[in-house]
């Protein structure tokens, strides 16, 4: 038995390393600069905690969340390891205790928020106490391309140079771009050993579904898993509250969680979720990084996440104990428009926007996939895999058809009308529905007028959604969301490529068209009138209706 294996069982109480851990622990313990990419729940913490015990001196751990640091310190102390944290959440006593054990040379792990690095005193302190290793948890926070960018992470590179000690960085975000950025920002001038470890989480069942009756779909999913701990992610704070109430109405233990809540209330939800069995937390993405509950049995997305990385991290919170876990991600044309608009209207510079669109494209491709989802997800992270047999598409292969002809008709309608219209008008042209708007513009004289009459309107809506999903068309933010054709669509128009579409999602979409009302100005009285109108519409027409604001907020 190696020393590492001995500590693994005597200190951490584990019988064996998880896949990948042994090699990483070995490299880090030997003082190699290391970048380890492992899935969420893969066991990254151990990969710096154990080497910290094997190395001389103190290991500084940079971690983005106070809650996460405190949990780890508590667990380490309980295992008899001298560990402490310097965070803004410390009491005076706690801080004093940390300094005392540092001075006495007892401390092995010192956790620190990146913000600490901004103060000059920190470097002086770290120089004085003799650091043997810098460990960077959630290292993707150094990436400006990622979704958790923390500017203070940029100070870590300078810290490494100043202390001249090995650095070990850990993350679950592994796309090529982020990887390259982590290496250049944290290891400048030194090339780390890179460990890219298995992204597959075979115990997590993957499934997507087109929004049909979104609330009912989530309630049905939860009802089939009654009594199990689960998370429902929503795009808006308001929705977390209404959906949690709806779940309670059906007898579930459920609470909401979002960034707008008081810190105390949020902590209470976190603690309840950790302790109780079978609590459902309905949350925005604010709920997550600090959650370390091994037996979350399911994760549902009531709205499409913003990128494939976000999707992977969020579903990755399920089934950390290795037992079967299930996921369901709902999406619809409105989600795609919302996420596109968030990227387009965000403040990010142009190149970053292009990358954000690409990440969204990857997720949309996954949502509209026609064969094994896991294979597609893993391919995005650079892993080749066989069809998994444990995703919705392997369970029930979708009914697909060659959609090339339909897509060409739609593209032609878009181009002949100067890329100036949204789906509604384009569909009227395709099915030959001569509305006033069509007659006023002489669009009933277009060669494409009526060429799509063989398909009903709702099917065309699903085709337009899938075209967005395949990134063949995009809503133009500068022209009220009118569709523009993308470069990716050209080979289809030229007859050099074909498109496969799913028929099942089309059939489903056909059942329930949504009624939307556009509001040009935010106004409280107008809003309440609209809400009443929406309710009346939803009740009388038995279809979902929304109020959509110019900032793309959706009110259901
Ligand atoms: P990550 O940071 O990669 O998401 P964690 O370090 O939080 O993962 O570990 C996830 C869970 O796996 C924790 O509950 C941890 O105790 C457990 N774990 C880590 N290593 C092992 C191991 N070798 N054997 C069993 N459980 C482990
Ligand atoms: Mg972790
Ligand atoms: Zn599969």
From TrEMBL:
Residues 25-192 form the Helicase ATP-binding domain. Residues 231-271 form the Rhodanese domain. GO terms for molecular function: 3'-5' DNA helicase activity; ATP binding; DNA binding; four-way junction helicase activity; hydrolase activity; metal ion binding. This is DNA helicase RecQ. One of its GO terms (biological process) is DNA replication. It is an enzyme of class 5 (isomerase). Its cofactor is Mg(2+); Zn(2+). It catalyses: Couples ATP hydrolysis with the unwinding of duplex DNA by translocating in the 3'-5' direction. Its EC number is 5.6.2.4. One of its GO terms (cellular component) is bacterial nucleoid. The keyword DNA-binding applies. Belongs to the helicase family. RecQ subfamily. Residues 214-364 form the Helicase C-terminal domain. Keywords: ATP-binding, DNA damage, DNA recombination, DNA repair, DNA-binding, Helicase, Hydrolase, Isomerase, Metal-binding, Nucleotide-binding, Zinc. The gene is recQ_1. It comes from Albidovulum aquaemixtae.
